[in-house]
Every structure is written in C-alpha cells, then in structure tokens.
Amino acid sequence: MAAPAAEYRAAQAALGAALAVQVAQAWAVLLDTSRLRATIPVLAAAVAALVHRYGQVSALTAAGYYEAARLEAGVAGRFTPVPADPADLDAVLAAVKWATRDLWTPEPDAAPARAATVAAAEKLVLDTGRDTITGAVMADRKARGWARVTEPGACYFCAMLASRGAVYRTEQTAQFRAHDHCHCHPEPVFTAYEPSAQVREWQALWVKSTAGHSGKAAIAAFRAALGQ
Questions:
Q1: DSSP result, 73-93
Q2: Residue 5 pLDDT more than 90?
C-alpha cells in the first residue's frame, strides 16, 4: 500500500477510536434511561458537537491525503480539494434516535444502544472524509475515478462494491455507500487502475458465483460463496 494511503487510513482509524471514547463518555454522563424523552436530545446535541469537531478533522485529513496521492501519482497542475461539511444536528439526532430505539422498553439494555450510538457517530465522521475524496474526484479533471479499499474481513457488501474497481466517476456512481462499523475508504485513481490480489479474487468469485443470477439473487449467491 502506498504511504499516503496507509497514513490516511491509520489516521482515520485513530480518529474513530478517539471519537468512540468521547461518545461513550457523553453517554455515561448525559443519558438517563428513566428520562429518555428529556435526555436523548441532550445526548444528541453533545454527539453532534463531537461529530462536527471530528468530522472537520476527518475532512481535512482526507483533503491532505488526496493532494498527497495526486502528487505521488505525478499528476501535473494544481488542485485544491474542498473539505466536505460534517453532518448537521438533524442528521445526528436522527442517528441517535435510531441507535437508541430499543431503550423504549420496560427493561432497556443500554449496552447495545450505546454501541450503536458510537458506531453511528463514527460512520458520520468517516463519511465526511469519504465525501471529501469522492467530491474531489468529481471536481478534479485529472482524476479517473476512485476505488473502494476495504479492511481485512470485509463483509460481502463491501467486497461486492470493491470488486467493481475504479468505476466511480459519474454522479450516479459517486456516492460512497458505507454501513456502521465500516472502515472502507475511497482511493482516488489518476492512472491505470491496478486491483489488489484480494480484489481480483473477488472479481473472479463474483463472475463464477453469480452466473445465471441477477439483482438480489446475484448478491445472495456472492454472499453464499464468501461464506457469510
């Protein structure tokens, strides 16, 4: 893996880990399961502040990575990526309400809800970095596209998207689709795309496992072939 990409992914992972600690602390101090109606909005506001702060760092880190990757690829001319805006309060409130939906029971289990809140906040922060890169690719005439880079143990969904290679350049395909606990990142492509050995393996498995299938049936066949 190229140095800028490795450094970027390590920085985003560290950012997510630091955020998780902060969100867990906010949960412990602000949320009262006996007073959900009053304390969930307070928790959401605190999480929104964290998402904004860490999201700005994620976006700036992604912009720096994009410039470094562009330089490493030997691309002529200058281009300044525009950092994406962090998620707003409404988006965070919706995420926190979704994560805490199972607390509205007579005997709520706080641990899964806390974990879901942390995961939702992390996704929102990492999405800000992802959006910065995909937005830069769309605006940079020298960029060919971006490819999905996965972490070890990626799920079938991420493996399927990664197997498509560097095809993400149009508005219809520009959005980076991620889920909670997802640590995939977009990698800008400026020259010929060289899939990794893992991606080539997934590409071959997709062709073999989905023969005669389409749509959801093809995805199910691919998932089964991965043993997930």
A1: TT--S---PPPPPPP-HHHHH
A2: no
